[in-house]
Amino acid sequence: MIPESELIRKEVIVRQIDLPSSVTLTKKSLLRWCTLSLGLISPKESRDKGFLVFDALFTFLFTKKSAPTTLDVKAFIKEKSGVEMSEKLIRYHLNRLIELGILTRDGLVYKINPSPTSEARSSMKESFNSWAKKPLEKNLEEIALALEKLQNAYEK
Looking at the whole model, is its pTM more than 0.85? Predict the structure, then answer.
C-alpha cells in the first residue's frame, strides 16, 4: 500500500461535460446530466434505478417540501414507475449524495445539507458550493502547489 493513501479523506468524481441548452429543457435530462457530471452514475449506465431514487428524492424535497425516509422513496418509486426496489439500493444511491456533502440524514429522513454561510437552507446550489466546490478548489490549489514543488525537486 502506498503510505500516502492513508491521507485520503474523500473521493469526488467530477466530469467535464458540455451543457447544451437542450439539456436544460426537461427535468429528466437535467437529472441525467447532473448525476452524470457529479459521478453519481457511470457513463454507460443501462439501469435507471439511480435516476428513480434521485427523482423521488427531489420530488419530496422540492415539490412536496418534505424530507423523505427510505421507505417514502421506495413507495414513491413503486407508485410512479411500478418498480420494486430494495431499501439497501435506495440507501446506496442516497449515500452517494451524502458522501458528496449535498445531502444529510437526520434520523430516518434525508434533507439538503445546508451551507453554513447561506440563508437558503434548502438550496442544492449553495450546499454544493459549500460542501463540494470549495473543498475541491482548495484541493486543486494544493495539487498545483505540489506539482510545482515536484518540478523544482527534479530540477535541482
Answer: yes
Fold of 47-155: Arc Repressor Mutant, subunit A (1.10.10)
Domain ranges of the chain: 47-155
Q: Above pLDDT 90, what percent of the chain?
A: 86
pLDDT at 113 over 80: yes
- Three-state SS annotation for the chain: CCHHHHHCCCCCCCCCCCCCHHHHHCHHHHHHHHHHHCCCCCCCCCCCHHHHHHHHHHHHHHHCCCCCEHHHHHHHHHHHHCCCCCHHHHHHHHHHHHHHCCEEEECCEEEECCCCCCCCCCCHHHHHHHHHHHHHHHHHHHHHHHHHHHHHHHHC
